[in-house]
């Protein structure tokens, strides 16, 4: 065992008391298997030695260093839990720990309900027989979802490259935060799926350095996404991020979250531009995320030997001059996000959310290669030459009409709107947390306000899709302390909402009005819930809040619009007199 792993175990032993355990036999899918598992059983629940259990069922196990916890993998299913935490995460979803992970007799002990969820099966305790009855499906292997992934993996292994399978799962940022694994909710785009990649650690490491969502990489490694693009939807994209960095020069030295994008995305509107956007769904493709030219060359050659067209290959360059590679404390944490918004068919969208038509491969040269960094492509300009300036008089007319309607009963406060998040490269320079921003979006936010019981928050302005400045746009309300968002009202909801205030139908069509309140006022109201159970899916009376706006993809530039070319969305806070 490596010294770092020994130190990790010693931390566990000093921090958590020993509990008694007994040997339990395991019957897997009706067959008694060799070996026993240390278990601490109370009634029908209890704890089992994680490493031994996962070995017996045919899975993998790693201690998790930074959260003092455990990561398990069963086929594609990757799950994790921290010692003492009330919740673990299984395939991106929170699971109650009954009881929490603990440490006993030199073993990391995980609750049986967590292990059952982690293998996608069932565990029954036969206490009198000292037996665990385990029912588990066959684990999904490389190629079980996308056959080409197996063909590619086999070719890569022939060239002395180590191939490990990861997974990609729908993940709720609020759920991860409320479970205690992140410091904020990432300014989540409420109601829209985020898919995060998880992967096992670099070969040779006996522990997972961070959460498996946060990859620490050698400078010659690569991640491969292979599969089909989503079913018809308004938007989808893929992008790598610098999620966190250790700063030895801070006082005290610390790891800081940045969650900064590392360039433009690969998105629906720049993916294979020989096809119309409508024909870019359910299409085979490969994305390689890497910094190294030699590793890219090997994967590209393997794809060609597999008969996969280079026309379906896209390169997500991880800029070598921006990222500190390495698997120790000084190495940056890297994350990959796949976004999808507004599926045409909800049933297809839900099916995709449960199991994306994608496979993830982590590629590592068997012998460390001296880096030959790829050049990152230049960033696309946001300037298109098309503005919304002609709509400013109508927006002012709308403002006056709203204030006239409500000012008799309410005091009117107008918090200013400004650009919310700087871009990734600037965030890295300034050490700022930018919450997983993307250059596909213009992010705007209002000043903070106190959201009291009787308040009405009115948002209004230009429907940026109607003005041809965006492919889709939306608005959410956020808790100011943890950036937890709710609402996610989109341009699909905006139609006709300004007609009450603007009599000219043509002018009204270009604008929108929406309300956020504690009770439903009409069909254009989002009811902001109270956060009774500390789930962060609402905010309490008097909490500080702000409104956040997104405008995705200028049709001309194929990135987010420039703030200089749009009329910023506006907010009116109404407080009862």
Identify the notable features of this structure and list them briefly:
11 helices, Jelly Rolls, 36% strand, 577 residues, 6-stranded antiparallel beta sheet, Copper Amine Oxidase, Chain A, domain 1
Q: What sort of overall outline do the alpha carbons produce when their principal axes are compared?
A: globular
Percent of residues in helices comes to 10-25%
Cα end-to-end separation: 69 Å
Instruction: Please count the beta strands (DSSP E, at least 2 residues each).
Output: 34
Main sheet summary: 7 strands, mixed
Q: How much of the polypeptide forms β-strand, as a percent range? A: 35-45%
Helix and strand composition category:
alpha+beta
Largest sheet: spatial strand order: 9-10-3-2-1-12-11
How many domains in all?
A: 3
What's the Cα radius of gyration?
Answer: 26 Å
């Amino acid at each position: 065992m490596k010294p770092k792993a020994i130190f990790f175990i010693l931390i566990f032993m000093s921090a958590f008391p020993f509990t008694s355990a007994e040997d339990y036999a395991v019957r897997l899918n009706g067959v008694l298997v060799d070996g026993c598992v240390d278990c601490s059983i109370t009634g029908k629940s209890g704890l089992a030695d994680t490493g031994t259990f996962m070995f017996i069922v045919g899975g993998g196990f790693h201690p998790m260093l930074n959260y003092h916890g455990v990561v398990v993998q069963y086929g594609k299913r990757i799950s994790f839990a921290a010692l003492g935490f009330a919740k673990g995460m299984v395939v991106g979803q929170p699971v109650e720990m009954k009881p929490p992970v603990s440490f006993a007799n030199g073993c990391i002990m995980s609750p049986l309900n967590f292990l059952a969820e982690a293998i996608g099966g069932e565990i029954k305790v036969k206490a009198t027989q000292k037996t665990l009855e385990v029912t588990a499906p066959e684990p999904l292997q490389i190629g079980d979802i996308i056959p080409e992934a197996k063909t590619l993996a086999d070719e890569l292994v022939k060239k002395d490259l180590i191939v490990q399978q990861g997974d990609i799962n729908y993940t709720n940022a609020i759920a991860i935060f409320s479970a205690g694994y992140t410091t904020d909710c990432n300014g989540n785009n409420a109601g829209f799926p985020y898919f995060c990649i998880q992967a096992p650690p670099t070969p040779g490491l006996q522990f997972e350095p961070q959460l498996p969502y946060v990859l620490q990489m050698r400078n010659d490694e690569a991640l491969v996404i292979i599969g089909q693009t989503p079913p018809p939807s308004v938007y989808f994209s893929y992008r790598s991020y610098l999620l966190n960095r250790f700063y030895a020069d801070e006082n005290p030295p610390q790891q800081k979250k940045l969650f900064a994008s590392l360039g433009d995305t690969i998105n629906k509107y720049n993916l294979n531009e020989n096809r119309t956007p409508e024909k870019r769904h359910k299409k085979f493709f490969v994305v390689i995320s890497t910094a190294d030219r030699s590793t890219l060359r090997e994967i590209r050659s393997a794809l060609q030997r597999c008969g996969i067209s280079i026309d379906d290959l896209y390169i997500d360059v991880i800029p070598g001059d921006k990222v500190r590679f390495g698997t120790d404390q000084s190495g940056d944490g890297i994350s990959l996000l796949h976004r999808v918004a507004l599926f045409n068919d909800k049933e297809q969208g839900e099916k995709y959310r449960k199991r994306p038509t994608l496979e993830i491969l982590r590629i590592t040269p068997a012998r460390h290669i001296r880096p030959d960094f790829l050049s990152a492509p230049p960033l696309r300009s946001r300037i298109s030459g098309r503005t919304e300036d002609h709509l400013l008089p109508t927006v002012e007319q709308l403002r006056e009409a709203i204030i006239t309607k409500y000012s008799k009963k309410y005091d009117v406060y107008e918090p200013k709107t400004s650009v919310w998040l700087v871009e990734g490269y600037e965030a890295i320079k300034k050490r700022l947390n930018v919450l997983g921003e993307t250059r596909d979006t213009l992010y705007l936010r209002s000043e903070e306000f106190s959201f009291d019981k009787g308040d009405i928050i009115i948002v209004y302005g230009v429907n940026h899709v109607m003005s041809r400045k965006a492919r889709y746009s939306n608005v959410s309300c956020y808790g100011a302390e943890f950036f937890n968002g709710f609402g996610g009202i989109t341009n699909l909801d905006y139609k006709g909402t300004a007609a009450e205030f603007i009599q000219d139908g043509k002018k009204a069509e270009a604008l929108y009005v929406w309300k956020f309140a504690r009770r439903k006022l009409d069909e254009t109201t989002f009811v902001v819930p109270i956060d009774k159970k500390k789930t962060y899916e609402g905010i309490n009376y008097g909490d500080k809040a702000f409104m956040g706006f997104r405008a995705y993809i200028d049709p001309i530039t194929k990135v987010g619009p420039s703030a200089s070319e749009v009329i910023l969305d506006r907010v009116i806070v109404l407080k009862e007199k």
